[in-house]
Structures are given as C-alpha cells and as structure tokens.
Amino acid sequence: MEKDYKQEPSSCIKVVLFGPESTGKTTLSKQLAAHYNTVWVEEFARDYLQKKWDIERKICEPKDLLPIAKGQMKLENTYAKKANNVLICDTDLLETKVYSEAYYSGTCDPILEKYALQNTYDLYFLTYIDTPWEKDDLRDKPKERVAMFEAFENALKKYNKQYVLLKGDWAIRLETAIEHIDTLIAKR
Asked: Burial code of 64-79, b = ≥16 C-beta within 10 A, e = fewer?
C-alpha cells in the first residue's frame, strides 16, 4: 500500500545526510544523534542489500527499490516518535531515487518518485567526496565519485531542497552541521 512510503506527522526537526556512498553519512549521523541526545535513522538499504549479497551473491535490482523504500519509511516513522526534538536521517527516499536513476538508465518507480518528492525534511546535509573511499561488499563506484556527487547535488537543486554542503575533516563537518541544526532549533 502506498501509505507505507509516506511520512507520518511529526513535530521534530528532521535533517537528512545526503550524498554518494562512502562520504561519511553514517559516521556523522551517529555523531549528531549523540550530540543532540536523540535517535538516528539508519540506512535500511545497507542491511537489506548486505543480506541479499550474503545469501544470493546478488547486488541491488530494480525490484528491491520499493521494499527498501518501505523499510526506510517504517524506520523513519518509528524513530520520529522517539526523537528528542531532532531526528537525524542517514538517508531518505530522494537518495534512493537518485541511486535508481543512476543505476537503472534514468528510471525510477513512480511510487518511489512520488514519495521521494512528497516527504519533507527541514534540512539536507550534502556530504562531499573529500573523505577516503572505503571499500565494502556494496560500494562499487570509486571512480565515479564526482559524477555521483553531481547527481545528488543536482537532485537537491532540481527539487528546491534546502541544503548545506559538508566538506573538510570530521570536526569541521560536525561543527557546521551543529551550527545549522542549532539555527533551526532556535527558530522553533
């Protein structure tokens, strides 16, 4: 059912770590959640696709995208009820849409696209590619980091999403993110 892809109402500030693989989204999500004494929404696709790889030795296929989107929104909606004023999201459906278009010839399931554009967040943090590449079973585009970064930034611009570019070392990224989240909190 389509309701499985929709955000439930929430009064917390929602921020998304957004960008290509191996750019520090998970590391920063954990740091921000600790700083704000809140919860963070992990990337559902990581566990889902790692299990698929471990069992079938297969990578992501188009048929996996809706189950991934459904799982991501279930996590987000669950954690939004537990958040302490701020919810840190390691990803969102717009990120899944960008990956779908990058990997599957510009295509995206209409349901995924609908909710990727309909669900809302207070701020996106676009993570730059100046972090070291870390290989694992799922990451596969070390030579396409610039193109993937551009795809993510272009999506934010195309859909008029408010975002802040995070680059530099971990301390600078964290400091920049905290500064912007604190500004959002102060406006509430």
From this structure: bbeebbbbbbebbbeb
Nearest Cα to 38, choosing from 90, 92, 85, 91?
85
Domain map of the chain by residue range?
2-187
Per-position b or e across 82-97, b if 16+ CB within 10 A of its CB: ebeebbbbbbbbbbbb
Residue 126 has pLDDT above 80, yes or no: yes
| Token pair listed for 53 | 């790889």
With beta carbons less than 8 A apart as the criterion, state whether 21 and 141 touch.
yes
Bridge partners for 41 per DSSP:
89
State the DSSP H helix or E strand holding residue 150, giving kind and residue range, or none if neither: helix 145-158
Domain 2-187 grouped into CATH 3.40.50.300 = yes
pLDDT tier for residue 1 given thresholds of 50, 70 and 90? confident
Say whether 111 sits in a helix, a strand or coil: helix
